[in-house]
Amino acid sequence: MSEILFVTWDGGGNLPPARGIATELASRGHRVRFLGHPGQREAVAGAGLEFTAYRSARPFSSLSPGSPAEMIEMFGDRGMGRDLLAEHDDRPADLVVVDCLLFGALEAARDAGLRYAVLEHLYDEYLHGGWLRGPLGQGMTAKGLDPLRSLDAAALTLVTTLPRLDPGSSRPHAGRLAFVGPVVSASPGVPSEPMVLVSLSTYAFPGMTACLQTILDATADLEARVVTTTGPVIDPADLQLPGNVEAHRFVPHAQLMPYASLVVGHGGHGTTMQALAHDLPLVVMPLHPFLDQPMVGASVERAGAGRVVSRDATAAELGPVIAEILADGPHRAAAAGLGTAIRALPGATNGADRIEAWLSSQPAAEPGHLAARY
Fold it and tell me: What is the CATH classification number for the domain harbouring 252?
């Protein structure tokens, strides 16, 4: 069996795809462990996986993510690279699987000659067509990093999305990517009554409490049960709940979605794919223009499976949109078609298969103290 090290960061939705593939690999007998921010320990250890916290990387938490400049420092943090190589030196890995946004860690792996894979937990189009060309990608260049070189040098690139939704699947470089499918669990149900699931991010976006309150106000006149999961950032006590709304800090979406008729979210890739995997249409309110949420929302709307709304919309403006997507219509058939496609492309299984196939094709790695090279 192989030794596999996953390198991650405390970004919320980026962890479940890595954890899902890692759990599948562990179930097949591989020795799998994670290197990440301390705040991720519970989520990783709860899946029965070994976890080591960064020692010299910059502190970071999704509960207080800071400014774009601080995000640039985190994504380009060479301290992550030093920690990666130290971890590898202590316990060599046959493959290191690195989050696609951690360019400080990717550069270290590349320069040290490690065998590494890139895990893209979002649309490849966003990474290559948005992130790298935008302020965050430009920040990597300003720090002296070469993101494209690090991505291109990977032995394997796993993209955990549905290719028909990702415009990047038609780019020239897409032939070297493995679109393994979303890492979600899905068991579509037949709701006995209309139910709307409202869930924004577990990441601390500015103004998110006000956005959630507006959405809940917009649902007040619906003849439907409304359930909102507020996550770690928003305190339910800070919300004014209409009579048809119940609020919970956390309930696994996989438990709620079989009973739901509609999901209202922020366009996070993971929640969106899980909703579609349950055949559910969406109303998407992107919370940040620099991130992938607008692109994810646009792809859902383009596919006919939902609508995109502005975070500045009023409750009076949102109400008719939510009511329209809650009702029957062609958007339900469109969402069900995407759900069928997602369930036919199980990301955790396919990702583990790809990693195993690559490992089996390689000669055994020679042990060495690679950290000393960095």
Answer: 3.40.50.2000
Q: What is the pLDDT of residue 91?
A: 96
User: Based on the domain organization, do 260 and 321 belong to the same domain?
Assistant: yes
For residue 80 the two structure tokens come to 């992550």
Does residue 303 share a domain with residue 155? no
Helices (H) and strands (E) in the chain, counts: 15, 13
Same domain, 156 and 228: no
Could you tell me the CA-to-CA distances from 244 to 116, 154, 195, 241, 338 in Å, in that order? 49, 50, 10, 8, 30
On whether residue 153 sits in a domain, the answer given is: yes
CA–CA–CA angle 139, 145, 147 (5° rounding)? 85
130 and 205 co-located in one domain: no
Q: Which of 227, 231, 301, 313 is nearest to 262 (CA)?
A: 227
Q: Give 44-69 pLDDT, tens digit per residue.
A: 999 999 999 999 999 999 888 778 89
- One-letter amino acid for residue 192 of the chain: S
- CA-nearest of 264, 265, 108 to 196 is 264
The yes-or-no verdict on residue 368 having pLDDT over 90 is no
Same domain, 306 and 227: yes
Q: What is the extent of the structural domain holding 278?
A: 195-343
* 137 half-sphere exposure, CB direction, 13 A CA radius: 17
- Mode of pairing for the β-strands spanning 282-284 and 245-248: unpaired
| Residue 188 resides in a domain | no
Instruction: Output phi, psi for 71, to 5 deg.
Output: -65, -40
DSSP states of 50-107 = EEEE-SSSPP--TTS---HHHHHHHHT-HHHHHHHHHHHHHS--SEEEEETT-HHHHH
Q: What would the DSSP string read from start to end of 205-265? A: -TTHHHHHHHHHHHTTT-SSEEEEE-TTTS-GGGS---TTEEEES---HHHHGGG-SEEEE
The DSSP secondary-structure symbol of 121 reads -
* SS3 state of residue 276: helix
Render pLDDT for 138-179 as a digit per residue (tens, 0 to 9): 999 999 999 999 999 999 999 999 999 999 998 878 788 999
Instruction: Let me know whether 149 and 252 are in one domain.
Output: no
pTM above 0.70, yes or no: yes
pLDDT for the residue numbered 285:
98
pLDDT at 372: 39
